[in-house]
Fold this sequence. Notes:
- This protein has 18 helices and 7 strands.
- It is mainly alpha-helical.
- The strands form 3 sheets. The protein has a 3-stranded antiparallel β-sheet.
- It has 3 domains: 3-93, no CATH class; 118-234, no CATH class; 259-397, no CATH class.
- The structure holds zinc ion.
- Zinc ion (ZN) binds next to helix 5.
Amino acid sequence: MKTKVAYKLDITEDAKTICDKYWLRIKNNSKNPFIYSCKEIGDEFGLTYREITRIAEDNAYLTILDCRCVNCSTVKICCNRTEFISSYLDSWECESCYLKAFYRRQQDSRRDGNERALQQQLIKENAFINQLIQFRQTQLYSVPSLDNINTVDHYLLVAVLICLGTDNLRSTISLSDNLDTQLSPSYSLDTKILDRLMRKNLLLVNIENSYDYVHANEDCLLQFDLFKMTFDFAYSPDQLQKLIIDSKYDSSKKRLIHNFEYKECCQDIQLEECVSYLTYCSKNNNLAPIIDAKMASLLNTCLLNYSVSEIYYMIWEGVERASSYCNKPNIDKMRASNSIYGNIQKMYEKIDNQLIENKKYSRDDTHPKSVLTRTFFDEIHGIEDCGFRHTVDDLLKQLQPHKNISTIYYPRLL
Ligand SMILES: [Zn+2]
């Protein structure tokens, strides 16, 4: 690979030395090519590694002389190490050609249409496209380096890769096109995850497939239809493979468990399992309870001491009772639906006071294990469907020495 460092005109001697050291590399080592870490350079100049990165980004860039855009022959430029390592050197297309090709295809598809009728729509679409281009460019500039990805984000990205990644590991399919195992127990959690990874710049908006699914609110802020959008991964396929392999190491799993956000994530997953089962049972009985903060708070209280499998039983009973209530004279569906909250609460209190026997339900085929449940529970704790059968607190206690949760077999009740 032939490269050359280019400097800003009024660069100081110190900054020049820093930039040279920043870009100094060992030949033929694509995995870890840099001779000095930013920390080592920083120690020499009494600066932090972040300051070194900023000085290098602001004062110089690296041109890769033997990597040119397949269309316009523009030489590839890297502003920082992350960009350098993430580069796809074979058949690289510059951002400007990527956009030109996109516009060309867009115009072709419109050539046959009635220009006048489309004009108004075009102006609106172009405004979104321009905003989207700006958004993507901001994203490209802020992709975290591989070593700086937050641990929870790392595992979320792995789940998205497994669930929605295309075969070449370059982009995702949309949630609406995914007919296999779901990413998480609910669509609302699915979109929450995609939104998070997009805001952290680990998933880049794919302009060509997404401009139809973007709207602007009154303040002209972009609103994304995350259910239909697709994304490009911010990393190369090799780097993504490495992230998948890294997620299997015990040291990575330990880091995840000790991250304060891990518990929160697990609680979110379990709550969505319960909400999704409640919606399903209610629909089956032609009922529609309001699932708001109050209902979520009740289910969260149940989840403190009971597993999802036990709460399935409370939900099932609660909905069955509402359904019988509905058959009584003068009771309409709305009143019956509203009684579900109270029924679940009564079930919980009776079980908690040992007035009735606690039962554990099995998963049924309508609620299979999601990719996220497998990634965050099964693979981390090494217990089959432990996110369904145990409380989060019990699983975290298991990590203390000499305490083990026995794996119990639950007979199928449904
Ligand atoms: Zn080009």
